[in-house]
Amino acid sequence: MTDFTATPLNRRKLFALGGVTLGGAALAGCQLTSLPGGSSGTGTATATPSATTSAASTCVLTSEVTEGPYWLDNSLVRKDITEGKSGAALTLRLTVVDYKNSCVPLANAAVEIWHCDAWGYYSGYTTATPGGSAPAEDGVGNEKTYLRGIQLTNSRGIVEFKTIFPGWYSPRAVHIHCKVYTGGAVDSATNTYEGGTAHHTGQFFFSDSLVTQVEAIKPYSSHTGTITTLANDMVYTGKGVQDGLLTVVGSASAGFIGTIAVGVDPSFTAASGGGGAGGTPPGGAPTGTPPSGAPGTPPTGTPPSGAPSASPTSA
Question: What's the predicted TM-score (pTM) here?
Answer without folding.
Answer: 0.74
